[in-house]
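User: I'm putting together a small comparison set for a docking exercise, and I want a reference complex before I start. The sequence is below, and the ligand is fe (ii) ion. Could you produce the 3D structure with the ligand included, as structure tokens?
Assistant: Of course. I'll restate your input first, then give the structure tokens for the complex.
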Amino acid sequence: MSDLFNAIEKALLATSCDETIQMTRRAFELSANSQPCVDLSDRVVKPISLVNFPDKPLCVPPRELPRRRLGTDAGKRSFIHAIAHIEFNAIKLALDIAYRFKGLPEQFYRDWVYVANDECKHFLLLCEHLKNYDCEYGDIPSHDGLWSMAVKTDNDILARLSLVPRYLEARGLDVTPGMLDKLKAQKDVASAAILEIILEDEVTHVEYGTKWLDFVCKQNNVQREDVFFENIDHYLKGQILGPFNRPLRLRAGFTESELATLESKDKRHSR
Ligand SMILES: [Fe+2]
Ligand SMILES: [Fe+2]
């Protein structure tokens, strides 16, 4: 296995945040160094059940999570910790796309390692900010909703690209501007500055989802829109939540027609 895939695998198997970040950065250096990112077809891919996460935070069902009211220090701490948890999961999610799916062009692997490196940056910015609230990552229970989507789609790249970058990450484009408004209204400049960086980077991540879903659909002679909604319907069973941020989603490659279909499926909309 090449150095690049070796580093990606080590980051996925790592049980600590530090090792995950160190190996992700190593993978990023290797991929950005114009080293060939050729995916060897004899590369052995370990099952997704072997991907590791740190012991903390404790994983609990979503209903047992602490409330995240932005008006109090405790609420703000939970809010920032929850986003740090999303970003840590996002590192593993991006790496897993690069690791698990073979035979794609070199740029595919470069793009997802680039995304993983961005997610490290987001995670570290939030960890640093958590110190202002006497908190470190792992202190507050969290849930594994994001990773469970990777597990469900571990043998289907069309499903993975539809559900992870184009559904889970795209949801961030919808909800982050509202969070930013609240933070700015509270004059929480430090938290808002971090979320602004994250939001801008996430547009690119979703755009990569669009780009590669397009590519694999063309390879398979199927329509992207059909594939996207088949997977959305199959995996989410109608749990589609809007409202959707049209300008950001358009920048990330969603078409007007995809947005119209999403809006028609939005549970709140149709209530
Ligand atoms: Fe991120
Ligand atoms: Fe992302």
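The pocket of fe (ii) ion (ligand 2) is lined by residues 90, 115, 119, 169, 202, 205 (CB under 6 Å). The chain has a mean pLDDT of 93.
User: Thanks, that's exactly what I needed.
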